[in-house]
Amino acid sequence: MEQGKASAHSGQRWMVAGSLLLGTLGVFVHESGQHPLTAVWARCLFGALALGAWAAATGQARALRLHGRALGAAVLTGLLMVLNWSLFFAAIGQVPIGTATVVVHAQPFWLMALAAWWLREPVSRWQMGAAAVAMLGLVLATGLGTGLGTPAGPSDALGEGRALGLGLCLAASFTYAVATLLARQAGIAPLVLAWWQCVVGAVVLTAWPLVHGLPTAPAAWGWLLGLGVLHTGLAYVLLYEGMARLPAERIAVLQFVYPGAALLVDWAVYGQALDLLQCLGVGLMAAALWASRSPPSAPHAPRCWRKKRSISAEASGPEASV
Length: 322
What we know:
Number of strands: 0
Keywords: Membrane, Transmembrane, Transmembrane helix
Helix content: over 70%
Number of helices: 15
Radius of gyration: 19 Å
Organism: Aquincola tertiaricarbonis
Distance between the termini: 35 Å
Pfam family, one: EamA
Protein name: DMT family transporter
Structural class: mainly alpha
């Protein structure tokens, strides 16, 4: 009993540490000053090296070899994650980092919709209500009602940039959900899948920096190295180790640490503070996402609320993390 509690506490510390580290990702993307595709390529290249080194050091290198359907699934999810990271990094140039991170983390509801349509999973009234609350929270969190703090009209270039950024975030959120669904069906270990995603990205995007030019400033390489080693290698390992020691319900709650950290870092580094309505929106999203994963278990609740957890209720996992 005591050993189980100690394992859970250590898992919580590992996962919180990984989430806090991911909260600084946007700063590294912004400070590198590189095109989003160059940043994604560097993250994939250095991330593959870091994760490969970890696999070798822990005796898991042989597990990285995939064949047949597993290899095809890994390559497909890798392509989706390259698209996801590209959209997210491009959005950071248009909207505040914290806002972009919050919008991307609406992906569990994309996953719920995809699971219902693709896998014919039942969706309870509780989940539909949670989705409606989350959508309201999303609208408030994006600052659409307040212009993100600036009275930019629809024809204003700044306003158009925000609209583009939010659209990129929603598209990234959708690809995140599709990649998660495919990854769960493939049944590949998270570390192996993440390594293959990075390898696919490094190969697919190799031509981009060669054609458009590699960074010349040493500082830029430092930020890009951090994206791969810190935010892909170290952060993912911390998350994997933490999740292995925690129940699914605790994982779902702790996933809110990442967007919360991104909001605090965005405020501390760039002075991007949320107004009252945006804070309310973030709170509504967090409450709705938690509620959708933890349906009521009262004796008179509909049977669909008490059924075994489905794929759409397990939308957490760093195998499809931004």
